């Protein structure tokens, strides 16, 4: 996992109660900032996961905000939640009272690719940034459909594919 290779603490929601683990890691305070990079396709187990899946199946909810809910509950008072995961519509059981009463800041938005692409590429070309640690596979351009399928299904540890013509 790229995050783990770069020194981040990684918690598997299937093996850990994320809230409890974050409280333990931060001495009961919660993280200063939380990032929801998952968005509407989050997965969960247990009652909350089943609830969201049922609401989606009945077309009463478009997204599964499991990661966003966990971020909202775990982030320290006065902290920041950054949402870069994609959401497409309506979510249910969102802890707005907790967010408001603990003065959390929520920052959202899709990446401004056109704004940042050229300066980031210049940093890479100068050697200031080396993004190669996230690349797990190299493929030919004609193998793009297979590469996407590997990424989508999380096959062979696939996280990022570089295509070459």
* Gap from first CA to last CA: 26 Å
The backbone outline, from C-alpha atoms, is: globular
Please give the CATH class of the largest domain. Answer: Alpha Beta
Number of domains: 2
Please trace the helix and strand order, writing H or E for each element. Answer: HHEHHEHEHEHE
What is the secondary structure topology, with strand pairs?
Elements lengths: L1 H4 L12 H8 L7 E4 L9 H12 L8 H9 L5 E4 L12 H6 L3 E4 L4 H14 L10 E4 L3 H9 L8 E4 L1
Parallel strand pairs: 1-2, 2-3, 4-5
Task: Briefly say what this structure is.
The protein has about 160 residues and is of the alpha/beta class.
Overview of this protein structure:
The chain has helices at residues 2-5, 18-25, 46-57, 66-74, 96-101, 113-126, 144-152; strands at 33-36, 80-83, 105-108, 137-140, 161-164. With 165 residues, it is an alpha/beta fold. It has a three-stranded parallel sheet, covered by helices on one side. The protein has a two-stranded parallel sheet with strand order 4-5. The protein contains seven helices and five strands; from the N terminus they run ααβααβαβαβαβ. The chain has two domains: 10-108, NAD(P)-binding Rossmann-like Domain (Rossmann fold, 3-Layer(aba) Sandwich), CATH 3.40.50; 120-164, no CATH class. The protein is 38% helix and 12% strand. Helix 5 links the parallel strand 2 (80-83) and strand 3. The model has no long low-confidence stretch (mean pLDDT 87).
